[in-house]
Amino acid sequence: MKKLGDWDDEFIDLDDESDDAYDDYAEEDEDGYMRLPDRNIVIPVVAVALLIIVIIVGIVAAFILSSGNKEKPVARIDQLPEETAPEQEAELSQSEESFKAEEENLVEDNIQPVEEDSEENVTEDEESEDPQGDAMSAEQGTEVDVTTLLSSGSVAETNQVTIGIDVARYQGTIDWAQAAASGIDFAMVRVGYRADGTREICADTNAKYNMQEAQKNGIKLGAYFFSTAVTVEEAVEEADWVADYIAGYQITYPVAYDCEGFERPDSAQYGLTNTQRTDIAVAFLQEIYNRGYTPMFYASMGELSGSAKWDTERIESSYRIWVSQYPAVPYPETEKSSYGGVHAMWQYTNRGTVAGISRPVDVNVAYFGYEGTAEAHSLETPEEAHADVEALMNFTEVNETVTAKDSTNLRNIPSQGEESAIVYTLKNGETATRTGVSDSGWSRLIYEGQTVYAVSSYLTTDLGYQAPVQEGAGSGDGLKTKFADRSDRVTAKIEVNLRALPSVTNPDATVVAVLHNGEYVTRTGINEEYGWSRVDYNGQTLYCISSYLMN
Q1: Is the dihedral of CA 293, 161, 107, 121 positive or negative?
Q2: What is the pTM of this model?
Q3: Rounded to an integer, what distance in angstroms lies between the CA atom of residue 365 and that of residue 367?
Q4: Residue 209 burial (10 A CB sphere; 0-12, 13-18, 19+)
Q5: Are 514 and 497 in contact (CB under 8 A)?
Q6: What integer pLDDT is reported at residue 303 of this predicted model?
Q7: Core vs surface per residue 457-491: b (16+ CB within 10 A) or e
Q8: How much is the mean pLDDT over the chain?
Q9: Which of 62, 431, 445, 490 lies 20 to 30 Å from 363 when distance is taken between CA atoms?
Q10: Terminal C-alpha separation, the chain
């Protein structure tokens, strides 16, 4: 039974079991009752406790609000596995909100139709087993002098936008020191591909050289792989191969999945549905992410728009998009791509001109950059890599003995330019083993254990061949070479030396000029025996090797 009174005089009957909860706070008095503590003590204690709770709740709420206001990364790494997401979030600097704002400001470009010109994209000397050579788009971007763009400083000096190129063996041997001096921020290097027929994973023959030299010259590296995977298992295999291949290099920019040409009837991927292709791509991208690199997906605007060829929304919900779209007026005059979807990188032309690169090159705008350079995943230093001197030439393998028709220079690389060196001059009757023949006019030989190169038209498999003696001069000096008249416009397949005489051995046969692909001259004569052409170049009569020319 309770005795009622003021707070200070309230008592609780010790026999009342319902009041057990008060036992910890009451004290027994002389009458056998329990008195509650004085409320002058209780109230301050309760007030302090409530104040502490309010402070803690405030701190937690502030933390949650600040976390919610952080910029979301472009690749939406928050939807990827948690183990490595913090590393990826640190690399991705641009917010989803900023991309939404960009989308709202996009203006449709007037894209001029282009005519197919397969020779611009796929040269006749590309390896037939390399599926990227067959898959290259016939679309032509606008010619861009990247050096001019970057020297203005209007782009390269910004914090969020960086300019880069993507390269493969099709660019030949790149002078990376010159490319770096032009102001290039990054290079996406093709590291390999899966052959359509054999299903073998092959390294790009210039990949390690390109990564090595770009890194030496301060250009930040990214990478891409040309996939023909037809199963998720093949895609994971490709991603693991890529991660192992690039482990010794400082890969700062993303590692991209590139899949093209899948609608050709001879493609291994022919007949796959959008969903199947997307499953394969996602498997590659996720494995690249698991291996500690930033994944990125490459495709054209036409393939991505409206999920025409891919489940675009599924890919862009978790991974960065690299879109190709070539406006008639290139960047920066055309400020943004016409592609309306979220994208982190834009390839805006495939006809860029960059110092140190003799062939046209793809140029990209990345809407992100990095203050530092990533460390290599492997502590093992890669072996020194050398340029593939045959990168621009398709050599057919042979095994035969040859001799010179008269005499021919054996060179260290298949070029007559200043960068090549004469190893030996092969005379008629002396033999060498020919191991390859290129449709660009060169033969690969083994001479005294060394790999050398010679002009094919100067060689013969007829070991008893006798050079015809021409009246009035020693043979082979070019002074009395007879030409059948011709009159046609020709240009170089890649480039060719124009000489004062039709000879490579005569000291007077100096190189007067170099004819590049796209520059046309009139051919006035041809010599079938030794493979020389006579051309009219700016009013001069000069000579060059016929196999280097095309109509």
Answers
A1: negative
A2: 0.63
A3: 6
A4: buried
A5: yes
A6: 98
A7: bbbeeeeebeeeebeeeebbbbbebebeeeeeebb
A8: 79
A9: 490
A10: 117
